[in-house]
Predict the structure.
Amino acid sequence: MLLDLPVLEKGTFYFIKDGESDIILEDKTKRGLEIKETSIDEKINVKADKGMIHDMDGIGHWVPIRWYFAKDSFDLSQVLVHAEAMDEKYTKLRELTCPDDED
């Protein structure tokens, strides 16, 4: 169902898809993570599918997999703000954890 939706924009770490009544922002780094619940994401106040990841101590953390921005409240440019912030966050994280060895 979500796989068949047209892609409006894509970045290194996200897809933005055109749903029937929502613009859907999907985190590529969470692909394959099982959806455990759908609830409101407290940070951006939109509906989100969430999964659970566990840290090295075995503690579970809820993480959003995709967000649903209602088309009657958001347009693509507003969703892109969140998508580009996610891309920037993951790019910085990758640079910190996987620096180039070309020194």
